[in-house]
Design brief:
The protein has about 70 residues and is mainly alpha-helical. The chain has one domain. It contains four helices and no strands. Helix 2 crosses helix 3. The mean pLDDT is about 90. This is Cytoplasmic protein. InterPro entries: QSregVF_b. Pfam families: QSregVF_b.
Amino acid sequence: MLNKEQIIKLTQVTMPFGKYSGRVLIDLPEEYLLWFERKDGFPKGELGELMALSLAMKIEGLDEVIRPLKYRR
């Protein structure tokens, strides 16, 4: 179930490792998220849940709606 806290976290939590380390999750490229999902699946826990949510938002074209929240801290 989508909730407000998860949406906010997409604009604040950064990728902790890999090629896009330090990048906010909502800014990860869709291709990277798709690759990650296909390769081994998303990590367990909250990070994986947020990465999956970020991918879903991108597929639905909602990432542009969420992205401005990065600047409203």
